[in-house]
Design a protein that fits this description.
Belongs to the diaminopimelate epimerase family. The protein is α+β, with helices and mostly antiparallel strands. It folds into 2 domains: 131 residues, Diaminopimelate Epimerase, Chain A, domain 1, CATH 3.10.310.10; 133 residues, Diaminopimelate Epimerase, Chain A, domain 1 (Roll). 16% of the residues lie in helices and 41% in strands. It has an 18-stranded mixed β-sheet that branches. Helix 3 links the parallel strand 11 and strand 12. Bound molecules: the ligand N[C@@H](CCC[C@H](N)C(=O)O)C(=O)O. The ligand N[C@@H](CCC[C@H](N)C(=O)O)C(=O)O binds next to helix 2 and helix 4.
Amino acid sequence: MLVRFTKMHGLGNDFMVVDLVTQRIRLSEDKVRKLADRHLGIGFDQLLLVEPPTNPEMDFRYRIYNADGSEVEHCGNGARCFARFVRDKRLTNKDVIAVETANGKAILTIFPDNQVEVDMGAPELLPKAVPFVAQEQSAVYSVDVESQHVDISVVSMGNPHGVLVIDDTDSAPVETLGPLLEAHTRFPAKANIGFMQILSSTEVKLRVYERGAGETMACGTGACAAVVAGRLRGILDENVKVHLPGGDLQVSWKGGEKDSVMMTGPAATVFEGQVFI
Ligand SMILES: N[C@@H](CCC[C@H](N)C(=O)O)C(=O)O
């Protein structure tokens, strides 16, 4: 069967976006992995499916699959691309779009300069909500990994994140420590692992080893989790510029348990295509 798709990216975190409002397809985990292959398929970090809402108060339903075929709860860069996609394809003419995610909702606002702001909802900090194995809640936990102790903050932005504060992102052990922590037994659902260098109270550098995708050029939920972790540790202010390998995101969080994390950044279309599945 021939399927229409759009290749998009948010700061180099790249996506295959498929409209399931006007087309019907079913994709197995194995098929997602094949499509994600950068040599034998289309190549992407995540597959985004645009579906009609199940809740009439929402505009769309948003489903996300990692390159390894696993379905995930949230994707910040994907959410911005989602907003541009539904507007460019004239599936809506709204500037403010409400989407259902696997475990919540996100509100997307498209500005006249085409930047997209995502209301990511409030972070979850209780260990069992992340999920993370710990007796009680703390801003920093010590985790044993291959005979070393690593200080890590844990945050759920709908999906699980661990955040380390390190001296220099250029020399951070993202490719070695990233996969070990991603699959660590204290993260029963695995986790995305961020390595954050503090430049000032309003500016950080960040690299993220993503669950199910490896290191990406940017991770939106990772940027939000890093700012929340920095706020919990008392290092960061409310408004923070996050420099990722693919570019910058602006993230703000007032710090209250019900306060949403707001993230603003770009979204771009690379090409339109059709593929036999
Ligand atoms: N790239 C994303 C996050 C995608 C999901 C993540 N890999 C997970 O498994 O939770 C972003 O921009 O947030």
